[in-house]
Amino acid sequence: MVAPASQCLPIPSPDPAYLALTVSAMTAAVALGEVARPKEGEVALVTAAGGGTGSFAVQLLKRKYGCKVVGTCSSEEKGEYLLSIGCDEYINYKVSREELAARMTEVAPDGFHVIYECVGGVLRDVAVEHIAIHGRMVIIGGISGYTSGDAWQSTETDYFFANGLRLLVRRSAAVSGFLLPYYWDVIPTYFEDIKKRFEEGSVTVRLDPHRLTGLEKVAEAVAYLYTGKSYGKVILNISDE
Fold this sequence. Notes:
The chain is α/β, with parallel strands linked by helices and about 240 residues long. The chain contains eight helices and eight strands. The strands form two sheets. It has a six-stranded parallel beta sheet with strand order 3-2-1-4-5-6, with helices on both faces. Helix 1 crosses helix 2 (about 55-65) and helix 4 (about 95-105) packs across helix 5.
């Protein structure tokens, strides 16, 4: 692949961890720094917090920005992992909508100042109900709707558009979309920061142990992402060499 030098990031070794740093960590670092702009002492929610980008968002919100961090996940095992990387609380979202809302109220009675949103669907809808005054939601994905194809579909009865916008106005809050390639001018600066934190040990990379080999396994690797079983960065080896 030929790419402009201005869009390449030099790395010290071909360690698979740098794959996570150059894409997943950059998504978290730039989205937080340029869009969400967390402040020390704020309460932050990270959905899919055990995933490739969510796990970096947790660590940065806690260790760089000094926030109280709440992460969502789909199992108690993942919850323990979230606590180990910096979450103060975790929410298992595999419950009813009412239970999910009650748990969010419990951990953030005044709402979330920052919401790093990767899931979409009901989780996104309940999260926006709990956005704080002057809160900022950054939408970087919608994995709950990727397999069905309706991740970005909306109708007149869609809860987020029918009710979420009203809540945003009432709380003087904001929702922003985020796509990493539009931030090439600042990516090198953020990469140097995250690389230094990784090499010093203040940011960790978890590579999911479910490792596949061969380009013919790409579809299988993507399907694995949608099972909800992965946490950390899913890596595909091109060959055994």
